Amino acid sequence: MSSPLEYIVARISEQNPVASKKLKKNLTKFSDEHKKNANEFFSLYSEYLNSIGKSIDYAIDCYLKMIGDMFYERLQFLETGRYANESYKDVNARIYSNPEIMDYHLHGLMLGQFLWLDQYIRFKFFCDNLRKYKPITRYLEIGAGHGLYVSEAARQFGEDVAFEVLDISPSSIEICKSLVKGKKINFILSDAFAYESSEKFDFITIGEVIEHLEDPLPLLEKIYDMLCENGNVYLTTPVNAPMIDHIYLFNNIEEIKSLVNKAGFAIVEDIAVYSDDMPEELAVKHKIPLMYACFMKKAK
Amino acid sequence: MEILLNELSLLFRDVLDNDNIVLQVNTTAADIDEWDSLSHIMLISEIEKKFKIRFTSMEITKFKNVGELAGSILSKLPGEN
Fold first, then answer.
1. If 0-12 CB within 10 Å is exposed, 13-18 middle and 19+ buried, where does residue A191 land?
2. What confidence score (pLDDT) does residue A190 get?
3. What is the side-by-side order of every strand in the sheet holding A227-239?
């Protein structure tokens, strides 16, 4: 009997030989730990899908639809040098307010978290380095996503820490809740700008959020205000990564660093991984998405 | 279809830098090493330019073989419907 990971890759291969090539190449580079984590996550995720009357095959269909969108957006991006979206209002009308698109996009991303090597490398970077930023008592995550990061923080930091997760999407929160069951996490349906807390946080995670904004600086400044003086932030965002809901284009890592510095942060450590494994020169030439992650602190 | 397959073969050879490519209706990405997700975007881009057509996001990834790709191109060409 095949594992959930093997099953997913096999089904994608049957339906889409082009998209499966990269996955099969990725699989040869997955560590045993990666495979174990992927299978645990996909099993949990399958349970959630079953609970809502769906199966992992549904998620595979969603993944392939999302890949279609990604190819299409990339085609436009390579022609124009810009992301197709210019305003939050447009994305909201076209994507966020369209439950059908949001549904397949969210479920597609769920599979991508472990199928795409770059996503897993950044998750591993978080897991391997988080302990350095102890002790903490209050943890905030902006953007619920798949719940992997907050789950790992809860595992490493323990029960005495207060965990809060903010998201503007009820469906994101619903999925996230089902994947972090058993953990004491307070989910709040709110825009980060509307959110007010009487106490500051020792650690704030914001993964794959700022590229969805017209101007990420005000949110980074808000995070700065919500963070304790000696607190830390874990941030991820991509360079050259067109998606149906991405608005703010970072052309290179220097632009990200410059922006976080402008918001008052200093980068403690970082990592960047191309979404396709190839020589740097070719990756730059083809504008291959570069996935960035960093731990930050307040610049004194 | 024969003429279109020949034209596509030339285009694939050029984009994928492989002079040995001879496309058949049942050819898939599994048959051509160089045809991956990255080169697929370049192929689609060149096909759109050559035939002055546009694929939708659904079409870009749903082609299971060259026959389906060719069929989609034909359906978009003037006078083919």
1. exposed
2. 93
3. A185-189, A162-167, A138-142, A201-207, A227-239, A290-298, A265-274
User: SS3 for A216?
Assistant: coil
* All domains of chain B in start order, with CATH: 2-76 (1.10.1200.10)
The Cα–Cα gap between A154 and A19 comes to 34
The mean per-residue pLDDT over the stretch B49-78 comes to: 90
Q: Does the reported pTM lie above 0.95?
A: no
Residues of B in contact with A72 (CB under 8 A): 55-57, 60
Assess: ipTM above 0.90.
Answer: no
Which amino acid, one-letter code, is at A46? S
User: How distant is the Cα of A35 from the closest Cα of chain B, in angstroms?
Assistant: 23
Domains and CATH numbers, chain A: 4-115 (no CATH), 117-298 (3.40.50.150)
pLDDT of residue A183: 81
C-alpha B48 chain-centroid distance: 10
- Partner B, chain A 60-89, Cβ-Cβ below 8 Å: 64-65, 67-69, 71-75, 78-79
pLDDT the model gives residue A51: 94
State the pairing for strand pair A162-167/A290-298. Answer: unpaired
Show the low-confidence residues of chain A (pLDDT under 70).
none
